[in-house]
């Protein structure tokens, strides 16, 4: 799913005008779907929709960080990633808490809403993947963004599978099962982002300290 992309935003210095435009469109689509799935997930009682919204949030943040920190220092980019990771972790914990609540309450989500939003999410990811398809053979950062968008469709298919399971069993456990797995992946991705950002901040601090020491020595 999205674990491949949350920590690999395209390098600012390598974003061409056309690629920047594609990233802006991808950002808008992913941010829109994040809001849509959060609202629909809460309204329908579907934890898996809320969990899939995390995926869209991660992607939107990924593209946003790529676009908004153009030309900034490594430290500022790392700080932005740290905030992104912390926010993702907070959403992941919220989804898990919501899942536990629905488990205790015996909630049966609305399968029709899950299916409709799941299809819309799948279409959104296909559009983004098609938009970024031209950059699939670019540098590693460009490839990572396209692969990320392509693999996100797995999460959408998981939601559709959960919707089918809810419809077939008239029970909420398929939704809760998928939501737990997706939220766990989101938390894992958030932990990786935070760990990587902290390493970059530590390295940047060491680099600054080294330069200062060298200057003092001279």
From TrEMBL:
SUPFAM superfamilies listed in its UniProt record: Cation efflux protein transmembrane domain-like
Keyword RNA-binding: no
Membrane protein topology class: Multi-pass membrane protein
Database matches in InterPro entries: Cation_efflux_TM (IPR058533), Cation_efflux_TMD_sf (IPR027469)
Signal peptide: none
TM region positions: 22-44, 56-74, 86-105, 111-133, 153-170
Principal location class: membrane
Subcellular location: Membrane
Keyword terms: Membrane, Transmembrane, Transmembrane helix
Keyword Transmembrane helix belongs to the record: yes
Domain Cation efflux protein transmembrane as annotated: residue spans: 23-201
Descriptive protein name: Cation transporter
Source organism per UniProt: Phaeospirillum tilakii
């Amino acid at each position: 799913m999205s674990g491949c992309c949350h920590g690999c935003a395209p390098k600012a210095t390598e974003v061409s005008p056309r690629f920047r435009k594609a990233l802006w469109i991808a950002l808008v689509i992913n941010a829109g779907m994040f809001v849509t799935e959060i609202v629909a997930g809460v309204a329908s009682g579907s934890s898996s929709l809320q969990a899939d919204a995390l995926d869209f949030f991660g992607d939107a943040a990924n593209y946003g960080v790529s676009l908004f920190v153009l030309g900034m220092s490594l430290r500022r980019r790392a700080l932005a990633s740290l905030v992104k990771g912390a926010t993702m972790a907070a959403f992941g914990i919220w989804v898990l808490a919501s899942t536990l609540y629905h488990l205790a309450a015996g909630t049966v989500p609305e399968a029709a809403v899950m299916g409709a939003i799941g299809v819309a999410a799948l279409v959104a990811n296909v559009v983004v993947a098609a938009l970024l398809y031209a950059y699939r053979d670019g540098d590693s950062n460009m490839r990572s963004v396209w692969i990320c968008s392509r693999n996100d469709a797995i999460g959408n298919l998981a939601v559709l599978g959960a919707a089918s399971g809810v419809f077939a069993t008239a029970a909420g456990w398929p939704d809760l099962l998928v939501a737990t797995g997706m939220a766990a992946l989101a938390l894992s991705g958030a932990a990786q982002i935070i760990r990587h950002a902290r390493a970059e901040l530590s390295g940047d601090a060491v680099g600054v300290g080294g330069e200062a020491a060298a200057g003092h020595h001279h």
